[in-house]
Amino acid sequence: ISLADVCAALFCTLPFDWLGLWFTALLLCRGLREVFLGLMILLDNLVIVLLQNLIQQPRPKESCLTSCGMPSGHAVVCMSLMCWTSCESAQRLQHSKRVIVILLVMGIHLPVLWAKVHLHDHSTTQVFFGAMA
């Protein structure tokens, strides 16, 4: 197991980390922002299930998973969370802080796409179309 494998595995936990953060925020804040974030995550998952059942493209042969791989669910969720977090930051922060936060958000979410390909859970095409969904 290489350092890249460990980093890839850690990046792949990001959507699940977001679920934990969302649930905590929902319990503590109980605002509309948290409700809309939860609805977005739910909508992402509905799109993933619908497209995977419609397309039914298998994952790469090296993958340990047997479910359909097109589109990558991690890519769908990470791109929508990246967009949501960037929009929230752009709306709430001053310009100098906004750029730093958005770059940090991108630096956290974009490596998930690499990680899914690196771990052979998805092909590059599956990750690309997941990011576009």
Describe the structure.
The chain is mainly alpha-helical. Helix content is 77%, strand content 0%. It is built from six helices and no strands. The protein has helices at residues 3-11, 14-29, 32-55, 73-92, 95-118, 124-132. Helix 2 (14-29) packs antiparallel against helix 3 and helix 4 packs across helix 6.
Give a nutshell description of this structure:
This protein has 133 residues and is mainly alpha-helical. It contains six helices and no strands.
Structural class comes to mainly alpha
Number of helices: 6
Task: Calculate Rg over CA atoms.
Answer: 16 Å
Query: Helical content, roughly?
Result: over 70%
Low-confidence stretches: none
Calculate the terminal CA-CA distance, rounded to whole Å: 32 Å
Order of helices and strands: HHHHHH
Total beta-strand segments? 0
What fraction of residues sit in β-strands?
A: under 5%
- Quaternary structure annotation: single chain
Instruction: Name the average pLDDT.
Output: 88
How would a textbook summarize the main sheet? Answer: none
Shape: globular
